[in-house]
Amino acid sequence: MDKERKLIIAGNWKMNKTVNESIDLANGLVRELKDIKEVDIAICPPFTALSEVSKSIIDSNIRLGAQNMSQNNYGAHTGEIAAGMLKELSTRYVILGHSERREYQRESNELIAAKSKTAHEAGLKPIVCVGEQLDERETGKTEEIVSSQVRGSLEGLTEEQMLGTVIAYEPVWAIGTGKTATSEQAQEVHAFIRKLLSEIFNTETANAVRIQYGGSVKPDNARELMSQKDVDGALVGGASLDLRSFSELIKNSI
Fold first, then answer.
1. Architecture of the domain spanning 7-253
2. How many CA atoms lie within 13 A of 89 on its CB side?
3. To which H or E segment does residue 187 belong?
4. What is the pLDDT of residues 205-252, one digit of tens each?
5. Which of 81, 139, 186, 248 has the smallest CB count inside 10 Å?
6. Secondary structure of 139-179 in the HEC alphabet?
């Protein structure tokens, strides 16, 4: 599949997998995906497994991602993880502003923007998540909500930093529900986000930034979603927890 931008598919394992289970899955993915060059692949295990998974994938085509991080570099922040700690483990990506953290941990756009800047300063590439709730879509507020999240969560980033940022559009109503936005719905919002980026930065930057889709992506719908002009990959939840499912999803996206 010819794309203007190289696809990026990241597996968000969320609060799943023990260290040993994580090692097994990572080793399996290294074997299954060793010949894939058309897609940038990342896996984001729980913090407890990052160190061991890093060792498993160190010489492979799979990159390591974390599921969150603090906006602070050090200090009295019990339970938090600093960017430098992630960087030491050869972490390349970090998911920021996931809908679950926005909803349950009440993370604001301002906080996510601060985390994004901290990530870039440490040499990490943030995957910044945005997306509307079901009631917001049903009341015609999708663009309003997404615009507010994109503008707020990227506040203060330079053009250069934006080029090293991935955006993940995740309609909250499609995460873990089995519902998936149609390829047309996904394309519509992705195109809207790219238009926003051209207004915030410039057209050249907007055209270079990769925008993932997230929300019940599976092997059987991956190809249609990835074929859309402005869909540049996927942030995958449940399907990334199974070796066969995640491997097939990636292969089907090419």
1. Alpha-Beta Barrel (3.20)
2. 25
3. helix 183-200
4. 999 999 999 988 999 999 999 999 999 999 999 999 999 999 999 999
5. 139
6. CCCHHHHHHHHHHHHCCCCCHHHHHCCEEEECCHHHCCCCC
3-state secondary structure labels for all residues of 27-94: HHHHHHCCCCCCEEEEEECCHHHHHHHHHHHCCCCEEEEECCCCCCCCCCCCCCCCHHHHHHCCEEEE
Categorize the per-residue pLDDT at 131 as very low, low, confident or very high, splitting at 50, 70 and 90: very high
pLDDT in tens, 1-47: 567 899 999 999 999 999 999 999 999 999 999 999 999 999 999 99
Tell me the HSE value of 212 on the side-chain side, using a 13 A CA sphere: 32
- Cα-Cα-Cα-Cα dihedral of 66, 17, 251, 165, to 10°? -10
Q: Which long-range contacts (CB under 8 A, 24 or more apart) does 138-144 make?
A: 142/171, 142/189, 143/189, 143/192
Give 144's contacts (C-beta < 8 A, 6+ positions apart). Answer: 136
Closest CA to 67 of 253, 254, 248, 237: 237
Domain positions in the chain are 7-253
Closest CA to 175 of 14, 9, 8: 14
Contact between 102 and 148 under an 8 Å Cβ cutoff? The reply is no
Question: What was the pLDDT predicted at 134?
Answer: 86
